[in-house]
Amino acid sequence: MNLAARYIGDREEDKRRSCMRRKMMKNIYPDKNITWIDMKIKKQGIRKAVAGILAFIIGISIVIVTIVPLLIYLNTSSGEAMRAFNSLSEYQKQRSSESIDIVLVGGTPYIKNTGSTPLTIVLTVIDSGNGCGDRTSMLKTNITMKPGDAILSINATSNSYVPAVTCYVMTARGNVFPVKEKYDAILSQLALSTNTTGIISPDNTIFAQDMISWNQSGKIRINYSINSYNCNNNAIPIITYIQPYPRQVLTLKENNQLKMFGLNNNNNVFICFKFNDVLNLTQQGYAVLALLRLVVVGSDIKTNDSFIIRLDISVNGSIIRSSNYYNSSPNFISWLPKTGSDYLVWDVIMLIPLKQGGNMASPGVYSLEIDVILDQINGNGSYYVGIEYLSIQGMKLIV
């Protein structure tokens, strides 16, 4: 009886609760007939919708976190690439606007920046006595030239190198310009313009073997000095062979033997070859072009340290009449001889202006002087010095 009553009571309680839920649902949704099951289903749908929204938000966040930095990187890289491209284009533009030429200013050759942009010479190749293709010297330099700037020589350490011995120069932008080649070309053109009948002729060129008459008549004098520049020691001119050089040269002897100059580190010798009254200027001229071949034969060449053996040589020419001196700029070369014995053959080209102030040289007879300096920089050795030929463009030789 008690169990039946309890069962009936539970049923009544369930009905009462169900009725209360229905009333509550009607209060919430007065226009709809929704059951409790419908409510559960709706809650499950809401949960699924919220879960979908959260999944979408998480997915979008992942995409944003991944894609946005990538887009930023690509945009930055593209900007850097564009800037690099613009920089490269500007560099190539500046590089192509560099230019170096040899120009004559008052008869003197200058290295000139003929381009439209400033440049810096960072490396110079120097002729060491065997031409620009063999055993050249390389010098680091830092010479800045604005457009239109011109320099007389390449200055490195304590030495200066004129265009005649400067093979090439390289700029900081990587351009390489020939110097000696342009120098030789401009002097050749000048020689052609001053001598329309030809550069070489018996009127203006003489080899050592044909200087015998000059020597016999006393027109040739050779003096020298050691470690000074007064050239006050007399020597006897002689035309002979200096072995192993195969051609005759004009050289000097002393005490009945060929004069050999022994030089040690930082010693130098000054040799003056003077040819008296051998040039005839037939009319006023602006400049004279002098060509000669200098021969230096070395023996017992060695070094006392780890430095490369080096002999610096300079040559300059003068045309003289009484108190009037017309001088060329010095030509300079660094020779790196082999140990033991070696010889140098140097074809020297000098332009001598025939003008002092506003006055041009007047026609008449002139003398020629060739000054040679040997300066032993590293090592030591013994040297003979000779001249194989002379060629004077713009004046006639008196033979």
Describe the structure.
The chain is of the alpha+beta class and 399 residues long. The protein folds into 3 domains: 35-92; 100-183, no CATH class; 195-397, Jelly Rolls, CATH 2.60.120. The chain contains 4 helices and 26 strands. The strands form 6 sheets. Strands 11, 12, 13, 14, 16, 18, 19, 20, 24 and 26 form a 10-stranded antiparallel sheet that branches. β11 (220-226) and β12 (233-241) form a beta hairpin.
Put simply, the count of helices is 4
CATH architecture of the largest domain: Sandwich
Structural class: alpha+beta
Shape: rod-shaped
Low-pLDDT sequence parts: none
Helix content: 25-40%
CATH topology of the largest domain: Jelly Rolls
- State the CATH class of the largest domain: Mainly Beta
Q: Mind summarizing the main beta sheet?
A: 10 strands, antiparallel
- Assembly of the depicted chains: single chain
On the 0 to 100 scale, the average pLDDT is 82
The ordered string of helix (H) and strand (E) elements is HHEEEEEEEEEHEHEEEEEEEEEEEEEEEE
Estimate nothing, just give the exact number of structural domains: 3
Radius of gyration based on Cα positions: 47 Å
Q: Per DSSP, what share of the residues sits in E-state strands of 2 or more residues? A: 35-45%
What is the number of beta strands? 26
Q: For the terminal residues, how far apart are their CA atoms?
A: 168 Å
